[in-house]
Specification:
Blueprint: H1 3-14, E1 29-33, E2 36-39, H2 40-57, H3 69-95, H4 101-111, H5 125-149, H6 157-178, E3 181-183
Antiparallel strand pairs: 1-2, 1-3
Helix pairs in contact: 1-5, 2-3, 3-5, 4-5
């Protein structure tokens, strides 16, 4: 797996990750991954960021309204991403993998063009938090990949790459199969 090729995809997807936006309603959990709560504010901020990204890109398609089939698909995708991030954090913790805040900040500052970047190149507080979450998740994924595939060998570079991808796919499948995910009413995928 060439992480340099997958990094833009991971960052774009993880850019949906949210910062807090306050309010009592937003403080309630919408899902749990083990003991880790995914709060309504995280979900709302991720949806707001997606809406802003689409608007900034000039996409002509209307953003789906709550209650529509399109919105349910969007909700399921956003929640799936938030759950995946929580699963990654838990897996990294079990493996003893850490990402330091300084690393995250340096990558954001060096990156330019981060999700939600304001005019003139500076990030607002909410957009910077989303960028932090995105970069942290990407670094966790990369380090888990390195750990999981460190002992994989093969006679050719192509076979090595294929075996590493397969090892990581098995790890992700096990991670997802062992995670205890519980959705609050109205947030379960397909509901």
């Amino acid at each position: 797996m060439d992480l340099r090729k997958t990094a833009p995809f991971l960052l774009a997807g993880l850019a949906l990750i949210a910062a807090g936006c306050g309010g009592e309603k937003a403080q309630r959990p919408v899902a749990f991954v083990g003991d880790t709560a995914i709060l309504g504010e995280q979900f709302d901020a991720a949806v707001d960021q997606l809406r802003a990204d689409r608007r900034r890109k000039g996409e002509s398609e209307e953003f789906p309204e709550p209650g529509t089939v399109g919105y349910r698909h969007l909700r399921d995708s956003v929640l799936g991403l938030l759950v995946f991030r929580a699963e990654l954090r838990q897996a990294a913790q079990r493996l003893g993998i850490q990402v330091r805040d300084g690393e995250v900040e340096r990558l954001i500052d060096a990156g330019g063009g981060a999700p939600g970047e304001a005019e003139g190149g500076s990030l607002g507080a909410a957009a910077r938090e989303i960028a932090r979450d995105s970069v942290r998740a990407q670094l966790l994924y990369q380090r888990i990949y390195e750990e999981v595939t460190s002992s994989v060998t093969a006679p050719t570079a192509a076979e090595l790459s294929a075996r590493r991808r397969a090892a990581m796919a098995r790890f992700i499948t096990r991670m997802k199969n062992t995670a205890r995910v519980r959705y609050e009413p109205g947030y379960a995928p397909g509901s």
